[in-house]
Write a structure and sequence with these properties.
The protein is mainly alpha-helical. Helix content is 69%, strand content 0%.
Length: 159
């Protein structure tokens, strides 16, 4: 799969996956969870394929692709189970773990966008496609983290 095809397929899928809290308000928890599983599988397969194809060019192993979807899928699972099941995870260290999972997700996805994974000597900071795609990934992930955290951890937004 070419890098441009990868970017054009990954970005819409990832942006929909990151909008889980908004989709949950529109469609309901059950149908959003089904959509989240399908989108999560698509994003995971894309990132895994990209990292698998670049084994000789990076230290990132394809197994790290699971981190790309872990926070989003955790949101969909807790959202589907309801507030009773999510309540034990609503306080304590869990908001911090959620933030770390989102940071790991962003890091893996940004690393998979690099043109160096194709064997190019070009840096990602000099590549316009990497810069634009990175901006979309960062903004989408930030908005997904904020909306998901407000939904899962309501004590964070209460004054």
């Amino acid at each position: 799969m070419s890098r441009n095809t990868y970017i054009c397929t990954l970005l819409p899928s990832l942006m929909l996956l990151n909008s889980g809290a908004t989709l949950s308000n529109i469609m309901g928890a059950a149908s959003t969870s089904v959509l989240g599983v399908v989108l999560g599988l698509v994003v995971w397969m894309l990132v895994w394929r990209r990292l698998y194809g670049a084994r000789g060019h990076t230290l990132l192993r394809p197994e790290f692709s699971l981190l790309a979807i872990l926070p989003q899928e955790a949101f969909f699972a807790l959202n589907y189970c309801g507030p009773e099941a999510a309540e034990p995870f609503a306080e304590g260290i869990w908001p911090g773990i959620n933030l770390l999972l989102w940071c790991a997700s962003v890091w893996i996805i940004l690393a998979s966008l690099s043109p160096r994974l194709d064997g190019s000597s070009r840096s990602g900071w000099r590549d316009p496609a990497s810069l634009i795609a990175s901006a979309f990934v960062l903004l989408s992930s930030y908005m997904g983290w904020v909306a998901g955290s407000a939904h899962l951890f309501p004590f964070l937004t209460q004054s």
